[in-house]
Amino acid sequence: MKSPFRELLEAGWTVELIGFSALDRYLSIHPGHVTFIQTNADLPELSKLFDDLQFPGVTVADAAIYREEGRFYFYCTDERSSSVFCHPLLKLRFHVNRKVYIDETSCYPVYAEMARKVRRTETAIARILPWVNLVEVYETVQLILETAVILARYIPEETIYHQNDPVQELLKVITQPTEPIDVPAELQRTYLELLLTSHRPDLGFILLLQSGIVSQLWPELAMMNTVDHSKEFHPEGNVWNHTMETFRHRKKPDLLLSLGLLLHDSGKSLASSSGNRRFDKHAELGSEVTRHFMQRLGFSSEMISKVQYLVRNHMMPAALPRLPLQRTQETLESPLFPILLELYRCDEASSFKGLDNYYESAAAYQNYLRNVKNPYRSADGKKLDKKRR
């Protein structure tokens, strides 16, 4: 299947990457799951080109197509500027036809400085704040959401973690919404995906939490900030802080893994103590929280099922070396198990437990895979007699 860019270009229409998509390209960042396209093709012409064209609503985009590789949002205009985004940094456009960046603001020096620091992984957050702090007062929900994504997506990955906190600096110029927030579910999902596929989602999420937006849009996540953790293994504090910490241990900002990390402990706010289990059945409860949360935001049933698998089973790798195969085989056979094991690694790395248990579990999984391929042994490693071979 041709890319949407190619189909538009071959039909003679202009194609411009705008907003986050243009900035991603400028900074050589993987575009993630959402692409924003401005074109002079109108809706009837787009309908002729794309049989699967959808109309998500005027507050989201003029039109959209939903592909396995992600969503493409179209904005139909002949104008030289776009009002799709609020933040000045998101005025950059990339004209695909002519392969040229179009900067309609006075921000070009800022873009160049961003590129230099991102590519050199500049470590001083305080010197990066001017990128996002280009607005005197942040007083609209859209502007705050965009700023959270900018903070998460474009601050260099290896910034000093607890120094020169950019969130606190931004909160000084943010006006917290006093009225109920009304953001369409698809737009919420878009911002969530942009955050999760960023290098530093923790910064964006913390900004949204402390500005009051998380509690209104995503109360399931805000509840995690009310649940304390054992300080012995989680000195970072509560469930929310632990969850934010897990993102720092990802090897890449994969959406499925990141959704699993975001929601893996979401059931703890509903769990009760039972014996020596403080959060009894929190994985099962978290699976239900995951389903309701993702359904509300319009995720596909396939994606919901995958994330539920990760949340429901996230405790299993810890016990894998000690459980009998009949208890674990169904989970091990899932093609999602390697992602589950990676979630467990991030979970363990974000606590003070260390990674010894993770390596033991990884070895048990490797041994299982070796036995499955061995025609002379059963899946649990027992020798097969000649009649069973």
From TrEMBL:
State one molecular function term (GO).
Answer: nucleotide binding
| Alphabetic keyword roster | Nucleotide-binding
**Pfam families reported for this sequence:** HD
Record bears the keyword Lyase: no
List residues traversing the bilayer: none
Q: Where on the tree of life does the source sit, at the highest rank?
A: Bacteria
All copies of domain HD, residue ranges: 248-318
What this protein is called in its record is: HD domain-containing protein
Native species of this protein?
Gracilinema caldarium (strain ATCC 51460 / DSM 7334 / H1) (Treponema caldarium)
